[in-house]
Amino acid sequence: MFDIIGDIHGCYEEMDTLLQKAGYKTDTEGLLSHPDQRTLVSLGDLTDRGPYNTEVLKFAITNWKAGRLLYCPGNHCDKLYRYFLGRNVKINNGLETTVAELDKLNRKEYTFISEGFKKMVENSPLYLELDRGGLVVAHAGIRGDLIGKTSKKVKTFVLYGDITGETHPDGRPVRRDWAKEYTHDTFVVYGHTPVKEPRFLNHTVNIDTGCVFGNTLTLFQWPEKTTISVDSTLPYVAEKFREPGE
Question: Is 190 helix (H, G, I), strand (E, B) or coil?
Fold first, then answer.
């Protein structure tokens, strides 16, 4: 039994409230447990834009190391990973909020997060195949013909979605609505593109309900195919919620 949590983006308080609502307990060392032995799964984008990015990172790294959390990276995770490697990344699109928090940490705290996060990314798959292949968790989704494969094309898809290479006038990448054409039997849980409500379509569900943009944070329960959500404490940003393909 799995509980998949959508894009957290530094919203630690909402994450904590949501996990409590779903029945999880956290001990004094920050380790999760569930009375029904459920497993928490993160589909990436742990940080950026929200108010408590380093707290979310500490939580994720601690529980991943202890085998209490399964994880696959999102595009914001990939950028943070490259930042920790010392690559020349632009400190924008939310990364500036995470870097500002990291700069306030002492050396021990910074090392725990930077080294722990790099290890977590390097030892986690691009997407998770769970429940004997009946369930796939991928940050931005995955087409049926790509399941079971790994390549540069697959990495781009699971991190950024089905992008065309074109951009909208405001700079956003143009994305195809891949879920609309999905016909595979494997159920796919993804996020990346904010929606007002969990979007169920053709054996897929988008659970990025835009917590960091003032809507809700959502958890998807498998095999029940039910969702649990909590309200965001942040201001609502209406323009962030567009119909797929817009």
Answer: strand
Q: What does pLDDT average to over the chain?
A: 95
Sign of CA dihedral 116, 120, 42, 27: negative
The half-sphere exposure of 39 on its side-chain side, counting CA atoms within 13 A, is 16
Domain ranges of the chain: 2-240
Q: What are phi and psi of 63, to 5 degrees?
A: -80, -30
DSSP one-letter code for 96 = H
The bridge status of strand 25-26 relative to strand 32-33 is antiparallel
Which helix (DSSP H) or strand (DSSP E) does residue 112 occupy? helix 107-122
The pLDDT tens digits of the residues spanning 142-166 come to: 999 999 999 999 999 999 998 777 7
Q: What is the pLDDT of residues 170-179, one digit of tens each?
A: 666 777 899 9
Distance, in Å, from the CA atom of 141 to the CA atom of 115, rounded to the nearest integer, reads 27
Dihedral of CA atoms 207, 213, 211, 238 in degrees, nearest 10, equals -60
The pLDDT assigned to 163 comes to 77
User: What percent of the chain is modeled with pLDDT above 90?
Assistant: 90
Q: Which residues of 26-60 are buried (b: 16+ CB within 10 A; e: fewer)?
A: beeeebbebeeebbbbbbbbbbbbbbbbbbbbbbb
Q: Is the pTM of this model over 0.90?
A: yes
In this structure, the chain runs to a length of: 246
**Domain spanning 2-240: which CATH class is it, in words?**
alpha beta
